[in-house]
Amino acid sequence: MRRFVRESGLAVFFGTLFLVTLTAQSVAGQRATNAERLEHGERALSWGGYVVSADFAGAVLENWQSEFLQFSLFIVATVWLVQRGSNESKSLSEAGTETDAQQRVGAYAPADAPRWARASGLRRRLYENSLLLVMTAIFLASWAGQSLGNWRTYNDERTAHDLPELGWIGYVRVADFWEKTLENWQSEFLAVGTMAVFTIYLRQRGSAESKPVGTPHNETAG
Amino acid sequence: MAHPVRAMFLLYVVFIAIGLAFFIVVGARG
Fold first, then answer.
1. Angle, helices A175-201/A130-160, rounded to nearest 10 degrees
2. Integer Cα distance of A166 and A170 in angstroms
3. Element counts in chain B: helices (H) and strands (E)
4. A222 vs A34, A81, A83, A128, A160, CA distance in Å?
5. Interchain contact A141–B (C-beta under 8 A)
6. What is the value of ipTM here, to two decimals?
C-alpha cells in the first residue's frame, strides 16, 4: 500500500484534492444558492438537492471544460510551436510530428512498445493521437454539459421574472453562456503562456515542471 | 506497466466518465 501511494503520488494527491474541493464547492454553492433563494422567498435546497441541480452541474463543468481545453491546446500546440529556453517546449529543431525513428513507432518500435505503436494504419494513427483525442473529447463533452446546466439555470431565472423560456440553441447564442465560457478560457491561456515563458528564467529545484537550476536560460528543455 | 499504475489510470478514466455523465444528465434534466 505504501509503495502504491509512493508510485502514484501525483494521482493520489490531485485526486484527493479534487474530491475535497468538489465537496467544499458543493457546500459553499448550496449556501450561496440558499441565501439567494431565501431573499426571493423560495424554499431552501438540501445539500443533496443542490448537488443534483443544474446550477451545480453548470458551475462544475464550466471549469472542467476550460481545463481540458487548456491541456488539449497545450498538447497540440507543443507539437509545432516551440519556445526557446522553455521547460515546456521541445528544442527548436524538433518542431513537428518528428520521424518514426524519433517517435519509436512501426519498424523503430522496441519489443516492449505499446502494441498499437508497432501497428500500422488506422490503429497507429489513433494511438499516436490518443492523448489529444481523449482530452478533446472530455473538453467537448464538458462544454456541452456546461451549456445544458447553464441553460436550465438561465431559464429558471427567466421564469422567475415572468419571461418566456429560451431553447438550447437560443441560449448558446446569448452573452451569459459566452461570459461563463470565456471567463474560464482567458485564465487558462494566461497560465499556460506564463508557464511557457516563466520556465525560461525561473526555477524550482527538483520539479519536473522546471529545468534543473543551473541550466542556462537559452537552453530549451527538449 | 505495473498493475497498480494501470488501476490508477482506469480509476481516473471511470471517475471522469461517471462525473461527466452525471453532470450532463443533471444539467439536461434541470
1. 140
2. 6
3. 1, 0
4. 51, 12, 10, 19, 56
5. yes
6. 0.93
In one letter, which amino acid is B29?
Answer: R
Put simply, whether A29 touches B (Cβ < 8 Å) is no
Report yes or no: A191 and A185 within 8 Å, Cβ to Cβ.
Answer: no
Closest chain B residue by Cα to residue A1 = B4
Interface test mutation site (partner B, options A60, A67, A157, max chain B beta carbons within 10 A) = A60
pLDDT digits (tens, 9 = 90+) for A142-191: 999 999 999 999 999 999 899 999 999 999 999 999 999 999 999 999 99
Q: CB A56 to CB B5 under 8 A?
A: no
Apex B19 CA angle, B17 and B22, nearest 5: 105
B17 touches chain A (CB under 8 A): no
Q: A50, A61, A32, A26: which is closest to A148 by C-alpha?
A: A61
Q: What is the pLDDT of residues A55-80, one digit of tens each?
A: 999 999 999 999 999 999 999 999 99
State the nearest Cα–Cα gap between A15 and chain B, in angstroms.
Answer: 8
Could you count the other beta carbons within 10 Å of the beta carbon of residue A25? 14
pLDDT digits (tens, 9 = 90+) for B1-30: 568 899 999 999 999 999 999 999 999 986
Cα–Cα nearest to A2, from B12, B6, B4, B15: B4
Closest partner CB to B20 (pick from A8, A56, A141): A141
Cross-chain Cβ contact B26/A57 below 8 Å: yes
Amino acid at A140: L
**Contact: A148, B5; criterion CB under 8 Å:** no
